[in-house]
Amino acid sequence: MWRCTRRGHLNGGRAAVAPSALAVHSLPDAELGSAPALDLNSYTVTPPIKPWPKRLFPKRLASMVSRQQNLDLALQIFDYAGKYHRGFSHNYDTYLSIIQRLSRARAFEPMESLLSQLRGSRIPCGENVFIFVIRNYGLAGKPRLALRTFLGIDGFGVQRSVRSLNTLLNALVQNKRFDLVHTIFKNSKTKFGVVPNVFTCNILIKALCRKNDVEGALKVLDEMPSMGMIPNVVTYTTVLGGYVSRGDMEGGKRVFSEILDRGWLPDATTYTILMDGYCRLGRLVDAIKVMDDMEEMGVEPNDVTYGVMIEAYCKEKKSGEARNLLDDMLEKKYVPSSVLCCRVIDVLCEQGKVDNAYELWKRLLHKNCMPDNEGKIWDAKKLFDEFEKGSIPSVLTYNTLIAGMCERGELCEAGKLWDDMVEKGHVPNAFTYNMLIKGFCELGNVDEGIRIFEEMVEKSCMPNQSTYYILIESLYNVGRVEEISRILSTAISCQSLDSDSWEFLVAKCIRNLDRGDGHVERVMSEISTF
Length: 530
Known about the structure:
Elements: E1 9-11, E2 14-16, H1 29-34, H2 58-67, H3 71-84, H4 92-104, H5 108-121, H6 128-139, H7 143-151, H8 162-174, H9 178-186, H10 188-192, H11 198-210, H12 214-223, H13 233-245, H14 249-261, H15 268-280, H16 284-296, H17 303-315, H18 319-331, H19 338-350, H20 354-366, H21 376-390, H22 395-408, H23 411-423, H24 430-442, H25 446-458, H26 465-477, H27 484-493, H28 499-511, H29 519-526
Antiparallel strand pairs: 1-2
């Protein structure tokens, strides 16, 4: 029997519906010369996946398309089933499954091709497929295409509802097309046959607040009862956000009080908006009071609440409070962003709390909040390279990447980042030095670790307990305890041995009396002038 194959492909990262390509497997020339006319009914097409189900129903195909991770293969499965699986016909559910996949992946060209097929097929449709397309056009920054999709819904024999209207208005707000939101709202009944609901009014109020027209938002709020709608806590929270965004905290407090007067319990979002407004104005004490009130009312902070307050504490250089809130956030099972984590670490380093910064770094690595040892640091490095094209990275950014590379043992890459950091005019801090020292010592290159330590004190960067701990442990582990005096001599000569480090070293030496002969005496002779 003749055998044919079919191949689909992605063009430029986008899925494309490719026509079926038949490839006849080779036969000897003699056979080809004497072969009779081809019987096209004897052709078979190779399925895109094996095993291919013998019995196929639309529900099963929709599941296959949804579960398939490879977008191109999902498209081939859909195409093959409709063209080559005997007795199978697509329905609305199968089209919905593949169009969802394509729209989420921003593969809009093949998605539009399938929408055209769906319209031509006269298959009865639901509104959900258009809601997915409108939403993803909005997220992709294509408001005009979102509007075109909404206007074309009736061409499929589907009646628009308030769900697709609200999805469109949200997409327009996301893309700052605020005037268009008001125009569509006014014409929703007469032009589109859709009656707005309270959610539609909330979106309109959000659009007016985003364009700093709080007065217009209040007018809509006042008119809602005459439209048969009762404002809810989301309505008032949106207006509160409008006041806060323009820095009018008195107006925001009035709205907040009205929420309480109506007997509603503000949620975490409402409290967070108020706290963020105070933080933006530098009124940290007021923000803390709001957070205290929030907890007294039994409302749990969310991840955004924590982020707002941690950032505010960092801005005020209150590293201890920032770290405590970050710890609380982790205990509540929230995952902070890498940027927020690094912000706290940076403030700790600025205040000389490098030991705390290092401990926090290790904990965050364990919690998978930072670039880890499984390759994520390279993803971060790629982002860093892109970021560097547009602006000069901060010490914080360099520290994050250098520490991540050292944790991986990628010391060459860490060294390149170090050189680039210095070239850009940034001064490495104790955290940066400690990570490099630790990286070399863990690879057994203690001499390079000592050299970096000597450069550290020469550059007037104060070593701390972590620095000494790393070096002394490494020297003990390789049997070079006699060189501890060299480290102390360097530190003392540069006056970079503080009292905390001195107490740590004495305790360390006493605990390790049995690990070397005479090294304590040598240490004591070195520090006799301290």
